[in-house]
Amino acid sequence: MKYLGGKYRQGKQIAQELKKYGKNHKIKKYIEPFCGALGVAIYMVDDYKVHISDNHKDLIMLWKEVKAGTFKYPKTVSERTYNRFKKSNEPSAMRAFIGFGCSFSGTWFTGYAQKYNENSGRNAVTETIKSIKKKEEFIKKIKSIKCQSYERLKPKNCLIYCDPPYVNTAKYKTKVSGDGEEFDHDKFWNKVREWSKNNIVIVSEFTAPKDFKCIWKSTRNISLNSNKDNKIEKLFILRRM
Question: How many CB atoms lie within 10 A of CB 209?
Fold first, then answer.
């Protein structure tokens, strides 16, 4: 499923780096508090007890229904249907499917994707269904799926991977989930420092505070309509004093 900031292309590589740290510290529990489209989590389920969360209600409802095998995939999504769900304030798994999977570049209700696909022969609904179904067997292995803020977590002896909203990048907005609010990056990094006392915490970002070191990097295209806008995706971990 297309998702702004998703790790579809780099998820497997990132998972390999995470596993190195998990193995070195003999950790069996994996937590991902910004799970998004599960680009990394699906590669962790065979080696760890995976617990995922996100504060986007619709998205979590989608993954819960996919895990339970109860989500009913739509055959088509018309522009009228797209706009109806866009105007709705009622969270649902279907709204997540349409809001991300049927939107231009996977950005929450940014524009009806099929309009952009008319002359390409591509179909947003078909592609989204195919993408999610590829993940189904892995999603069913996830131990827990919760809708909650990262701030509520009190982990211990866990491998934690964070893929938060990046500094100076676009973010989706929804009245229901509250994700249009400004993300407090200073508060987030302080929480990572706190968790790092009893856990292994690794963060995806382009930049990080000086007390964090880069352990992996890769070029990533972040533009919505160009192949020229690239940044260096990095993984950071707190420096041990």
Answer: 15
pLDDT at 85 over 70: yes
Token output for 116: 């952009």
The count of structural domains within the chain is 1
Is this prediction's pTM over 0.85? Answer: yes
Q: At what angle do helices 124-139 and 57-68 cross, to 10 degrees?
A: 60
Q: How far apart are CA 20 and CA 33, in angstroms?
A: 20
At a CB cut-off of 8 Å and minimum separation 6, what does 172 contact?
A: 4, 56, 99, 100, 107, 108, 109, 110, 179, 180
Report the amino acid identity of residue 56.
Answer: H
pLDDT computed for residue 105 by the predictor: 83
CATH label of the domain that carries residue 149: 3.40.50
Collapse the DSSP code of 109 into the 3-class scheme (helix H, G, I; strand E, B; otherwise coil) and give the result: coil
* Contact (CB, 8 A) for 158 and 31: yes
Quick one: which of 97, 89, 32 has its CA closest to 62? Answer: 97
Burial 123-148 (b: 16+ CB within 10 A, else e): bbbebbbeebeebeebbeebeebebe
Cα 84 to Cα 87, 99, 199, distances in angstroms: 5, 11, 43
- 160-179 mean pLDDT: 67
Higher-pLDDT residue of 196, 176: 196
Within-domain flag for 6 = no
